[in-house]
Amino acid sequence: MMALWPVHIGQELLLWGALSAVSLAGATLILKVLRMVASYAWTWQQMRAVPTLPGAYPFVGHALKLKPDARACHQDIYKGIDMRGVNFNVSKVNSVEECQKRCTDSIHCQFFTYATQTFASVEHRNNCLLKHSPGGTPTSIKVLANVASGFSLKPCALSQIGCHMDMFQHLAFSDVDVARVTTPDAFVCQTICTYNPNCLFFTFYTNAWNIESQRNVCFLKTSQSGTPSSPTPRENTISGYSLLTCKRTLPEPCHSKIYSGVDFQGEELNVTFVKGANACQETCTKMVRCQFFTYSLLPEDCRGEKCKCSSRLSLDGSPTRITHGRQASSGYSLRLCKNEDNSACGTKTNLRVVGGTNSTWGEWPWQVSLQTMLTTQNHLCGGSIIGHQWVLTAAHCFDGLRLSAVWRIYGGILHLSEITKETPFSQIKEIIIHPNYKISENGHDIALIKLEVPLNYTESQKPICLPFKDDANTIYTNCWVTGWGYTKEKGEIQNTLQKANLPLVTNEECQKRYRDHEITKQMICAGYKEGGKDACKGDSGGPLVCKHNGIWHLVGVTSWGEGCARREQPGVYTKVAEYRDWILEKTQSQDGQSLKSRA
């Protein structure tokens, strides 16, 4: 490619080289940029977790104690620096800020260089060069007078491009593959795509895909236009987009879920014997080179209560193969997760719902069953423990049933059949309906329950964290809805607590599917475009919870929807972050102490 800048005397610095003879000021500036570039690249490299190879030293210098920067947001402008890469667009602009904005709003731009009005070549003054590279960072850096460089602000949630949070079941994207990794589900695939500097969208082939070699394979993709050119209907695939251009906090770059009945294969790094899959994950996390693990439950792999824990790694940081139907549990190192606070809320013992699966004991310890005592005793709604004496639920659960005496609240249960006359329950002291509530479809479908007697927290009964108000703009990817409700529209209440993993849907996309209703900022939507999983009758008031920075947060309260799990009809939930002030006001005024917003 022809150089767009005239050649000037200067010292080019390759990222894998060492500093050479440049001025002290130039060297200092380059070192500053190098540190920033290292931080920028840290998350993707750690997501891939490529093991150090003998003789491979990308940087020469002192070690930097880099901490994970999930967004790698760098707004600084670096004067006198030319960041080199592939120049794919050049235009005239009036300022470096305008150049940075153009880069931020260009789907392929990762960094840029701007020639100021005092640049030596009159022809090239005010040129804005948009650039990219295979690694997302400059391939080389040059000290050059009267230029300025910087990075796209997409990771700062400042892009105007917009984003697609939907996932599309049974739909495959074609175009150019930039990478191929093995992942256990589409959510991990999407997170990896988001942090890959060149991935714009992806297609994940599920374990039910007919070609064995492509099962659980995540194809990271790009295209010249920035969008998929020819989506193709294809069974047992899930497709979606990178979340980099969303105006929200990105999902944390770690995968904390433990997958039961699954074997993650890779190079064996270490074998030890521990008690439980969580202990195995902790063992992997403490080993610097461990990227993922498998905890075997085969009789021959166990010694008493302890079983074989295999710490593993691979060249790209992902399992080389994922095998289902094994007596094992697998997962990833938690090195990229923020440290988890061990306070009570938002933690669980283990790692209305259509298309869901059975939960396990202690998996959702904040879930409660709201039951009425009329002619018979029946489960009517779900709810979430948010404090020793407080439960959060939907206001519509109390339509026509405002009398506290008819209600019983059961916590710490998995099977409704466990409930007998001897089973402990809580009685309601007060029901607090949001003052603006009329009907669920109009919003404000939220209510607080004050219990007669405070709850004791146990492993199977503990609170969920409330999100902060700022969390309204956080992108969550690990979200679950739980309840004992119907598993199909014309079904019945389930005995075992059900769970379903659902992607969130933007309010703009949700509004398109509910043209007869207003989707307000106090609502949040979740569900697959193809349907199949959803909340349903009996799940109302229950939690939509999402894990972020190692802690579970109560993001939504199950409210309403058109049918259950219908195509292009996502479930609508009350957005808890929008009611945080109201919740704290009511709970503090009642008992004089504040609820924990989060752990």
Structure overview:
This protein has an 8-stranded antiparallel β-sheet with strand order 18-26-25-29-30-31-28-27. Residues 1-25, 48-70 and 349-356 have low confidence and may be disordered. Strand 20 (377-387) and strand 21 form a beta hairpin. It has helices at 24-48, 96-104, 186-195, 277-286, 507-513, 580-591; strands at 12-14, 78-84, 86-92, 111-115, 127-132, 140-151, 168-172, 176-182, 201-205, 217-222, 232-241, 259-265, 267-274, 292-296, 302-303, 306-313, 321-332, 357-358, 367-373, 377-387, 390-393, 407-411, 428-433, 447-451, 479-483, 498-501, 504-505, 523-526, 543-548, 551-560, 571-575. Helices cover 12% and strands 32% of the residues. The protein folds into 4 domains: 12-51 and 71-156, Hepatocyte Growth Factor, CATH 3.50.4.10; 168-241, Hepatocyte Growth Factor (3-Layer(bba) Sandwich), CATH 3.50.4.10; 259-332, Hepatocyte Growth Factor (3-Layer(bba) Sandwich), CATH 3.50.4.10; 340-599, Trypsin-like serine proteases (Thrombin, subunit H). It is built from 6 helices and 31 strands. By secondary structure, it is mostly beta strands. It is globular, with a radius of gyration of 26 Å.
